[in-house]
Amino acid sequence: MRAEPEQTESATRTPDWPERATRWAQITLAEDDPLHFDADFWLDLMRDSRSNATCISAGGYIAYYPTQLPYHYRSQYLGDTDPFGTLVEGARKLGMSVMARVDPHAVHADAAAAHPEWLARDAEGNALEHWAHPDIWLTCAFTDYHHEFITEVAREIVREYDVDAIFANRWEGYYGISYSEAARKSFRDQTGLELPAGEHQENWPEYVGWRRRQLSRLVGIWDQAVRDLRPHARFIPNLGALAARDLDRELVEKHYPIFFIDKQGRSGIEAPWAAGRNGKRNRGVFPDRPVRLITSVGPEHHQYRWKDSVAPAEEVKTWIVDGFAQGALPWFTKFNASIPDHRWVPPIVDAFTLHAKVEPVLKDLRITAEVALLDPTRAGQLRTPDGIGHEDGFYQALVEARVPFEFISDQELSPERLSPFKVVVLANAEHLGDEQCAALTRYVEAGGSLVAAYQSSLYDELGQPRGDFGLGEVLGVRLKEPARAVKNNYIALTGEHRLTEGFTGTTRIIGGTHVLGVDADPAAQVPFRFIPDFPDLPMEEVYPRAAPDRPAVVCREHAGGGRTVYFPFNLGAIFWEALQSDHGLLVANAVAWALGKHPEVTVEGSGLVDLAVHRGDAEVAVALVNLTNPMAMRGAIRETLPLPPQTVSVAVPADRPVRARLLVAEVDVEPTVENGRAVLTLPTAGLLEIVHLDWRS
């Protein structure tokens, strides 16, 4: 129910509420929900799932409360009800944090007719009708609709209801380039240029920077408006179309106490580890900001929107669990408050209850790793048409190899941010500025190691091509021939090296489908070389004509102790496309050799396991997410198969007694401690087990 501002400020309404809000329940209302809304069902579910925060549809495109603002469209079924207010009151009685959801991306016909200046427009100036529903219109984020009208919506909600935040979905308005008069004028005033004709067209880099600045300023306006009325409250935009890396740091430090990632599930050829990747990616830019992962109870599909349906239970649980194991804590969303299909309820309760069980240990630990995957973000996109899959392939290879790893953004290459990592992996970091290349070079000189592939550092931060690799000197290579497509490429083993381990019985393996010609520094080691091209048809002509020549893998050891490995072909992309095990082994061998020592944590056994290492001052929790499943590489997962035995080994102080406990099974175990390592065998596990080792006094 409505509450005056002075009644809402108490010890429970404090600025640190985002840190305590760790399990979120979201109800996304449909317009007709006021007709059959069952508040008791939702409040019981919040209690049963141990949710401690909720996000409830309030306004924007449709208001679910009795708004007093002209052109703020009320649900035609609202009558004298207030479903939003009812849920706010019930959630507060459960001690939950509350966010009000608004959606500014479209308006109804009456608002469009009264305020045509609010609408997104194409290059010819035509207003853009919604692609999925007639007679509603897309808005432009650079007009007064966002700057003024949505600001007033936020103020009304915060003034009238006891909420901690406004959560904005599709807050960026039209995702493409809007040619509204307001957008044209703002871009012209700030840059002296005209809006680009399309992505990567003339003035595109300037547009990317301008859009980021404008959206950042917009968030600041909204957040300040909310905090003026209720100091502990925040305005928090959904990061569905953007990521934390795309926002100005000053804005984030001031206005983003928490990140909500709208990656609601997987579809097509996508692995379940993609859930946890969201947490890693945001930590790569803002390691101290809490992250919550929004999960849909229904299936996700790139083409079809079956939003009012239910995904298989184990698929939903796996997505949630892999997310929180990697630090992206759980949030579920249900579209439509009616419940024709109840099958989604038990998996939500199970997954949330599982998080509540392990939270007391994990909440005080931080996720760490010796290996980091560089997240390249400059100019928004990779340039090359074959740029898809590089990161996915390396990610899959590292998961298969049981390598715990984190992300680090290319915007954060300071010595302080790089120093925790022993190895940094560049799957295909094409866009690297001179300063970034210099930072990575200094990292290697100080003893760090690099594993790089394909066109890493061949373009500057604006996407302009270099004549040679920006990292060429440290990698020990010089460009002789730009990337070209090949069909029948092989690389030959040309000497004993750690990178050739595991290839017993063969003298060559598959190479890439896009390759570069490079020369190697005389001091470098070249354990693989390309076999010169030969035909792939007719079959009688499929044989090599010449001995291996150009380097296919270049390894260097540096004076400071660092090591580098370079692959002049699309190793990650072709592994992701073809999943040939030799390519995955190459990645694993490269990282193992670059690390140059025994890893701090190892987990050995059969199966596909996503690992995360949570560390404290005198304790380590090793999370094993069991992804061993015939549906791991194409969902949906129908059942969780028991994990075979796993051997967990962790470096520990030699002079301290070590205790061990399995957090999910809730049993203490006795590790074997010798030679500075604690070793134990995990006999089996379901979807998740967390091995907690503690040597505190």
TrEMBL record:
Please give a single GO biological process term from the UniProt record: carbohydrate metabolic process
Q: Name one GO molecular function term.
A: beta-galactosidase activity
Q: What is this protein called?
A: Beta-galactosidase trimerisation domain-containing protein
* SUPFAM superfamilies found in the cross-reference section: (Trans)glycosidases, Class I glutamine amidotransferase-like
Q: InterPro entries, from UniProt?
A: Beta_galactosidase_Trimer, Class_I_gatase-like, Divisome_Glycosyl_Hydrolase, GH, GHL6
Q: Which domain of life is it from?
A: Bacteria
Domain Beta-galactosidase trimerisation as annotated: residue spans? 393-486
